[in-house]
């Protein structure tokens, strides 16, 4: 076998392995679903912490931390929404 053919076959095999789908990595839809579930979980945890604080069962510092986490999650969701809307508007402005 020619040395160049051997190197080409090896390079192809390495590239094919690198391009293969990784276990646990999904499509864009799966990623968005996971992000939405994480967002929902953060809001639910914040709600539980707020209830516990009102009933005297949680530390006020835990409430402040939970509120900060939920604020960050909401800001991230709003930023993502704004970027999607902006991209959609750019697509609409494209000449056909």
Automatic annotation (TrEMBL):
One of its GO terms (biological process) is bacterial-type flagellum-dependent cell motility. Keywords: Bacterial flagellum, Cell projection, Cilium, Flagellum. One of its GO terms (cellular component) is bacterial-type flagellum basal body. This is Flagellar hook-basal body complex protein FliE. InterPro entries: FliE (IPR001624). NCBIfam families: PRK00790.1-5 (NF001994). It is found in: Bacterial flagellum basal body. It holds the Pfam family FliE. Belongs to the FliE family. It comes from the Bacteria. One of its GO terms (molecular function) is cytoskeletal motor activity.
């Amino acid at each position: 076998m020619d040395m160049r053919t051997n190197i080409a076959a090896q390079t192809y095999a390495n590239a094919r392995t690198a391009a293969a789908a990784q276990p646990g990595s999904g499509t864009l839809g799966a990623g968005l679903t996971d992000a939405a579930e994480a967002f929902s979980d953060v809001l639910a945890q914040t709600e539980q912490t707020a209830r516990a604080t009102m009933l005297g069962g949680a530390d006020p510092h835990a409430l402040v931390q939970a509120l900060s986490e939920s604020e960050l999650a909401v800001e991230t969701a709003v930023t993502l929404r704004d970027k999607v809307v902006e991209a959609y508007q750019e697509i609409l402005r494209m000449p056909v």
